[in-house]
Amino acid sequence: MRKPKPLQKGDKVAIVSLSSGLLGEQFCQAQRELGIQRLKDLGLEPVFMPNALKGLTFLAENP
Q: CB 1: neighbour CB atoms within 10 A?
């Protein structure tokens, strides 16, 4: 079995949305910012994927 290399400081980490689109909603902003800050504190660079912040309505209408 091949294992990926351990993450290093400066590595990019992809952020994807929950299937519901919850991550893109305004009421989740505090949790989203907390998660971003925690990744940065670990020396990682969060990168949001295209649909990660689209929200509940967009993802419900575009499964």
A: 2
Distances (CA, A) of 34 to 26, 38, 40, 59: 14, 6, 10, 23
Burial category of 21 from C-beta neighbours within 10 Å (exposed 0-12, middle 13-18, buried 19 and up): buried
- What are 13's two structure tokens? 């980490």
pTM above 0.85, yes or no: no
For 19-52, what is each residue's pLDDT tens digit?
788 888 889 899 999 999 999 999 999 999 988 8
